[in-house]
Amino acid sequence: xxxxxxxxxxxxxxxxxxxxxxxxxxxxxxxxxxxxxxxxxxxxxxxxxxxxxxxxxxxxxx
Length: 62
What we know:
Elements: H1 3-8, H2 11-34, H3 41-61
């Protein structure tokens, strides 16, 4: 997800998207722990997406 897409979302949409991305990230980590996934860079991408969404939410709370 690009930063411009994140900024255009409302706060409620950000919270929903954050929970979805966190769930996907957890699933990827579990799948990778069981057997190596095809593209392990997906884990990094999802982790960064979680961080971007959480950062934007915290910016809006301030």
